[in-house]
Amino acid sequence: MINSTYYSSPIGEILLVSKDNNLIGAWFEGQKHFLSTINEELMENEDEILFKAKSWLSRYFSGEKPNINELDLKPEGTDFRCDVWHILCEIPYGETVTYKEIADKIAQKRGIDKMSAQAVGGAVGHNPISIIIPCHRVVGSDGSLTGYAGGLDKKIFLLKHENPEF
């Protein structure tokens, strides 16, 4: 069964989705790829993981730095996308990395010379668990703020929320 509930954040409604007591989705209303990994009907029901996710987000937006490991995350995607999302989970609060840096890590992990930063960008853009898996912390090689599935205004808000000097 796929459970869902909404969380009202300072930057918009977020649909939280769980399956088998794992968080599998957190999308801003109307964002790109909204519900793209869900093939079953949603049941509005706040189970334990959704309750924890709402608490995690409330603490995050109140200025705390909740640990991502507090939540059982199980984003659904290809092995490549899951590898990218795992790297996103390692980006420290208030810091950023580039698509190229992630591509270099993936290449090293896979034992290949080079990985496309553009392919990494596609995986980052399809992250199904916004904010919690911090795809907003990825920037262009020159530090530019490239796209964000939830909207560039939300990315800017999140980066400034974590680091006011950004």
From TrEMBL:
PROSITE patterns: MGMT. Keywords: Cytoplasm, DNA damage, DNA repair, Methyltransferase, Transferase. GO terms for cellular component: cytoplasm. It catalyses: a 6-O-methyl-2'-deoxyguanosine in DNA + L-cysteinyl-[protein] = S-methyl-L-cysteinyl-[protein] + a 2'-deoxyguanosine in DNA; a 4-O-methyl-thymidine in DNA + L-cysteinyl-[protein] = a thymidine in DNA + S-methyl-L-cysteinyl-[protein]. Residues 5-74 form the Methylguanine DNA methyltransferase ribonuclease-like domain. GO terms for biological process: DNA alkylation repair; methylation. Signal peptide: none annotated. It holds the Pfam family DNA_binding_1. It is found in: Cytoplasm. The keyword Methyltransferase applies. SUPFAM superfamilies: Methylated DNA-protein cysteine methyltransferase domain (SSF53155), Methylated DNA-protein cysteine methyltransferase, C-terminal domain (SSF46767). One of its GO terms (molecular function) is methylated-DNA-[protein]-cysteine S-methyltransferase activity. Its EC number is 2.1.1.63. It comes from the Archaea. Residues 79-163 form the Methylated-DNA-[protein]-cysteine S-methyltransferase DNA binding domain. InterPro entries: MethylDNA_cys_MeTrfase_AS (IPR001497), MethylDNA_cys_MeTrfase_DNA-bd (IPR014048), MethylDNA_cys_MeTrfase_DNAb (IPR036217), MethylG_MeTrfase_N (IPR008332), MGMT (IPR023546), MGMT_N_sf (IPR036631), WH-like_DNA-bd_sf (IPR036388). The active site is at C135 (nucleophile). Involved in the cellular defense against the biological effects of O6-methylguanine (O6-MeG) and O4-methylthymine (O4-MeT) in DNA. Repairs the methylated nucleobase in DNA by stoichiometrically transferring the methyl group to a cysteine residue in the enzyme. This is a suicide reaction: the enzyme is irreversibly inactivated. This enzyme catalyzes only one turnover and therefore is not strictly catalytic. According to one definition, an enzyme is a biocatalyst that acts repeatedly and over many reaction cycles. Belongs to the MGMT family. This is Methylated-DNA--protein-cysteine methyltransferase. It comes from Methanobrevibacter millerae. The gene is ogt.
